[in-house]
Design a protein that fits this description.
The chain is an alpha+beta fold. The protein contains 17 helices and 5 strands. α2 packs across α6, α7 runs antiparallel to α8 and α14 crosses α16.
Length: about 400
């Protein structure tokens, strides 16, 4: 009695399935699926509107489909069948990164490969191929997904390389800006172009000293408009500058508000590109004036008098503390009242406003100002003499 050779039958069926699958793959028209891919790609403006020529997209599209179809001929990732896929993935990832194609658009385009290939195969297949198609659905997705992953890795690696190159080039131009030589208008224009700004753009400048640099970098990391924030290291100081005049609510305006909470020197009045090094020097001097128990940025408005006091002290100017010495002859209560009265007047420039702040009659305040003048020889109502107090008490 003859019995069926089931292993042989099964082997023959499997062999036939493999042959039929490869037959379907070989019948796929590369030109047709590439054209279909190009047609669907028009729905991705971020991709098709990039600097990539259409013929380049078509070339890599055709090469990708050819490599994917070859990889699909086996049920496992055999190196000899995947080498073309991996090669084209690097080509596509690098070229798209260089062309500025967003990673999201690139991944969406690659996902089109699955639907285009699958629709092409199913249009060729007949009813008897139904089970064969079901068996290979996961494999098609696996091959395309592997291609997407390899392309994404190539894209990310190239993007990191591009950013490193750009950072290096930018730092080179900033080194030129911060050099002590006088720059020509052509050099300033080229630096502005490298920053992506107009040569007429004005900038806010901030400087954080060594201990406060991490605090400054943290504020930068939280800022969504970081692309317009430029940094340059000067020894133990970090210089940060960005375009002035940002409207309320904009990313750079929020960053400016964040800077006000950082212990740094901050010059918010806009300066031209060529003056950034000089203004950075001023901001550095302001940063050095911050006392250990103080917080927040030392702005020019807040720190100019203190800077003047510092420079005058260093120059050995006399009588900066003459008012304090004169007030030592008073009792503690009178000294406190005289000092707070003069300080309120110096801050407001108005007897009426200052008296309201101190909750006293204006005549009381005027009497205190007069008493202060008698004791110190400095009349706070005379601007030239008041300046001595502003600087001396800074």
């Amino acid at each position: 009695m003859l019995t069926p050779d089931f292993p042989a039958i099964t082997q023959n069926q499997q062999s036939g399935a493999v042959d039929r699958w490869r037959e379907l793959l070989h019948q796929v028209d590369l030109g047709a699926i590439t054209d279909e891919f190009m047609r669907r790609l028009k729905a991705l403006p971020d991709y098709v509107d990039s600097s990539l020529p259409a013929n380049e997209i078509q070339r890599t599209g055709r090469a990708s489909f050819q490599a994917l179809l070859l990889a699909l001929e086996t049920d496992e990732d055999a190196p000899e069948f995947l080498k073309d896929r991996d090669k084209i993935s690097v080509d596509v990832g690098v070229s798209r990164a260089r062309a500025g194609v967003p990673i999201e658009a690139l991944m969406t385009a690659i996902r089109l490969d699955f639907s285009v290939i699958w629709e092409a195969i199913t249009s060729i297949a007949n009813e008897d191929d139904a089970q064969l198609l079901v068996q290979h659905t996961a494999r098609v997705w696996e091959v395309v997904d592997g291609y997407a992953g390899a392309t994404q890795r190539a894209y990310v690696a190239e993007l990191a390389k591009i950013q490193a190159e750009a950072a290096s080039m930018r730092q080179s131009y900033l080194a030129t800006l911060f050099s002590e030589k006088t720059l020509t208008s052509a050099e300033l224009t080229r630096i502005a172009e490298e920053l992506g700004q107009s040569v007429d753009t004005e900038y806010v400048v901030a400087v954080a000293l060594w201990d406060h640099i991490p605090q400054l970098r943290l504020v930068m990391a939280k800022n969504p408009g970081e692309a317009q924030i430029y940094t340059y290291s000067l020894g133990d100081a970090l210089v940060v500058f960005f375009p002035a005049g940002a409207r309320a609510g904009a990313a750079l305006h929020k960053f400016y508000l964040g800077l006000e909470q950082v212990s740094c020197g901050l010059v918010g009045e806009g300066c031209a590109l060529e003056r950034i090094p000089q203004v950075a020097s001023v901001a550095t001097s302001l940063a050095k004036l911050i006392d250990p128990d103080e917080s927040g940025a030392m702005t020019w408005q807040r720190g100019w008098a203190r800077m003047a006091r510092f420079e005058l002290d260093r120059a050995g100017a006399p009588d900066l503390d003459v008012a304090e010495r004169a007030l030592e002859t008073c009792g503690v209560t009178e000294r406190r009242r005289l000092r707070e009265s003069v300080a309120a007047y110096l801050e407001t420039g108005s007897v009426s406003v200052a008296s309201e702040q101190l909750y006293c009659h204006r005549n009381t305040l005027m009497n205190r100002l007069k008493r202060f003048t008698e004791l110190t020889g400095i009349d706070p109502t005379i601007p030239a003499q008041a300046a001595r107090l502003v600087v001396g008490w800074s």
